[in-house]
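Practice problem: predict the structure.
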Amino acid sequence: MTTNQTAIPFMQLRGGSSKGVYFRRDDLPDNQEQRDNVLKWVMGAYGDPRQIDGLGGADPLTSKIAIVSKSERPDCDIDYLFVQALVGEDKLDDSPNCGNILAGVGAFALESGLVQASGDNAEIRVFMENSGKVCDVSFPLENNMPLYDGDTEINGVFGKAAEVMCHYSGLAGSMCGGLIPTGYMCNTFEGVRATCIDNGMPVVCLRAEDFGLSGQESPETLNANSALKEKLEKIRLQAGLAMGLADVSDKAVPKMCLVSKAVNGGHLNTRTFIPKVCHKAIGVLGAVSVATAALFERGAIHDLAEIPEGLDKQMRIEHPSGHFDVQLELNPERPGIDVLRAGLVRTARLISRGEVYVPRSVWKGKKN
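Answer:
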């Protein structure tokens, strides 16, 4: 038994097309500064892009953390705080949300004993601390525990698994206070048109063609384009200020999304930077925001999208590893664009559980 390190219970789950380390809040330090220091050690996030001294996967999609607790809110079952470890930087960011990691939160809550469920299906209401919003998560059960085997496929994940249905309500202005936080459908930064949107995730939507791109380039090609990344970061810093996010130089938001016409039967095509690295897919709430931005006729990307008819808009968002299907339910009682709910299908799987160790000099644990 180790005596010079502190053991912390954890689980690692794949949520959607991401992978994260999940903790019960009670198993971490109460003090946020100390908690963040512990989490950096857990992930190996001290500026080493390889993250060899921790559980991080050296990629934004696999360097994620969920902190979960039983909710004291009468209308919710659990509270969920998302933390992004910024790969290659000595930083954590708890300002954005993550819908992929959210897909595993319900399973973790059952596996860790935070909540109980029975019958054939679990219905868990999650309060998302990052945004102050609520998501209803449902998934199948077997012997009152999460069932992971199933027939659902999602792009970016090998094989099939059980469906996790996520219904988000009231996402508008999750971080910025408004759906169109700059007050304009179309802004110009560095001579480039942009629509700034926040329907669950602050995103700056740009036309790939305005950067001399087709929009079909691979993430590897885009990540190797230093001039492109430099210009995107200049735009991101200006857009962050315009969106009311203040100085975003050390934050993972807003996300930057290059949009082009779909080529594989979808409604639009995307290349997303989180915030400076091109994503191999697209984030859950990022997809919701981009799909919403495309609905605005005076926005920067509307003419690039094929917009379905009716108030219930099923939109397929293409990305480098496939597509992401988003359902937007518009309010029939109000004119214009008012999204009541966003529905998304994800899957999740428990990968491991056990104890992760940090030096006792970092934290001696709650029992000491």
